[in-house]
Amino acid sequence: MGNEASTVHADGAATDLPASHRAMNILKMIEFSKDPRAGMLESRDQFGDLFLLESHLVSEKIAGFCGPELLAAFDDKLRDGSIVREGAFPPGVLALLGPIMSTIDGEEHDARKAAALEALTPARLDLYAPIIREIVEAEHASWAARGGAISLACLTRDMVFRIFLKVLYGVERHDGNKFRVLLDDFIVSIRRSSKHADPHGVRCRTQILDELIRPAIANAQARASNKTPVPSVIDCLVANGKMTPDVLETEAFHFLFAGFGGVACLATNILTAVATHPSARKDLLDARAEYVTKYDGDARWAHFHDLGYVNLFILEVKRFYVAGPTAVFGRTKTDLEIPTKNGVYKLPKGCLAAAGLEATNRHPDVWTDPNLFNPNRFRDLGHVRTTKPHAFCPHAFGESSHRRCAGEDLTTLILQSTVVSLYDFVWQMVPNQDYKLAVGSSTPTPVGQLMAVGFHRRTDDAVEIIGTVGSKADWKFLNLPEAKELVGTAMDLYDDARLDLWTRLMIKLIGKKQAVWDRPYANQILRIPQHQKPLPKITLIQTNIDIATEDEDWPNQPWLEIQQSNFLRDHAPFVDNFEHTWLPGEDMERYVMSKVGSMWPRVNVHWNDRYSDRALELLAFNGFGQHLLTKLPEAHDDGSYYGICLNFMKSLEVRPGYAKYGADAFFTSKGKVTKIIRGDIASRPGDSGWEYAKLCFRGSLQTKVTAVDHLLGIHATVANIMVVANREQLPPTHPLRRLIKPFTFRSVAINYGAGRALFWPKGMLQRAYALTDKGMKQTTQDAPAHRHNDAAVP
Description:
By secondary structure, the protein is of the alpha+beta class.
């Protein structure tokens, strides 16, 4: 790291700056005037820490000061009055801003600064801290309640504005967003006010004063009269009475427009840094673990001094990210002599003097690897505001009583509160978004607005603070032209990491179809048979079953819908997620219904008992297992009289991570379950593995009944053969054909769709079950042997 300042100066009288530190170039001056931020950095690199820009064509001269040694010299000149703020602002800007503290000099400035600092003492900050905590926690809780995709950048700005209204003015406005928009417009208008105050900016300032600030001051004065002040800056200033009414209005507005943008920028870029610097993210997680172990509950909000790495992280965010003006301007009132380690140099009277803040915060001779985000650079620096008052200057430089920002500690408190509250949450960033900082703004935040999904309360202390939603395969798929046409915006696809991309998109696709569904009625939709002819067919994949493709009553599925469904089936990543599981105490059924409830058919029978022994018995004797129930050749010693035998399914190949299918369930003659045999292991009611054994049996039963008996048996075989025989073998007028017709309504359309969507490799059936490609083939090819419940009973 560079030294704070050098005391070594060359002997001899002051001299003019050498040519290597000067530019006699009107274009340089114009470029600097248009973009002081870039001009300061470029001039520092080209001409050194002290430079002078001038031209024979204009009388204006620009002197640049960079680095701690020169900022200290600039600060000294401000103190002794040889550099003043008067004349440093364009007349239009000065008219727009009014005579705010940063534009005035001498005793008047010092008096205002002292009054402002009284409202921002450590004791006053202790009063503001609970207010900040309440707002931050409420805002973060509301983010979690939103669901879907959210902009962390936009929501952070809203949160910080609420804090400013409450802490500065003691108000909680439901129409606060209106004032934030007015403030944004006012700040933009500053750039348009070089020669004359921008009229719209003036109107914005007037409206904020009339509708927000003056009423807030009046309320604070009333509270002071009633001796019922609230913790706010304005209440403190009113009570102290050290500002005249006009000055109080001016500075109350100044605190808002000069402070809000920078604090909101820093609070936002805390999240930017978390998202873009993985090593810092790991250190933050370690710091969180240490802090929440040491402090619990309310104690976490009382020991910000002990946040460890978090405080280093905040310092680096302040150094690394621009959050306000990048230079302090003044006007040289006399000819100056500026001492440096290389000599004493002259600067002429009347030149515009610019002290580079960013140019010093990113100075390669002051900070090691200045363009690298590294919070650990502050680990051994102690109280950096004291040890490096002219090297670390996100809040200007020097002492707070002079030109350093009075709100520095309030800013730090807001940032600390933000991080501590976020300790209780996790979220995922939408990938492929633009993290580049906006160009042309004095408070730049990411262009992509920090879009995140799945913002929710933390349930696992070991989980990383944030992640990136979706897999690389997901986003490779979503970048395909066909996927973009199908999906549109992908932001709303990642509100919950437990659903894979295929599931999300299928819900979206089916939801669109359901939204336009028009319930058919028999007297409107059934047509009199017209033709007897051979039907076009396709062979169901991995079987020898030919299914018809031309429905007599129902139009073919739209071509685009078919292509989208096939594209999703064939190209969406096929993943098995064993990482994201149920949350503690989560209502699993409610969760599922939250995703598909809008498409769910009306429930006529509410079966709330799903997992008990009685539920299993009802499933076997009265539910979808009853057609598989067989009487055993001989009763077992334990009373087993009936059985549903599915252990043959253990031969089906499953994907890594899944248990094998298969289980035999046995029941007494009265229908009471006695045992479940899975492989060679028998489990009975009350055993430690009983609930797991029931789970395995239910899963095997559901898979066998759905894939084999329902889809292959009823749909692809019975319904398919009936409709084909009816339409190919019987003439349209045959009474039997007309009798059968209502019972085969839409069978062809359903079977044809199922052939594409369910049975195909990577289709809905395989994604819903644990089967490999080989397992799917085993299921379809072995189906005839098990369709009529002729499995041997052990």
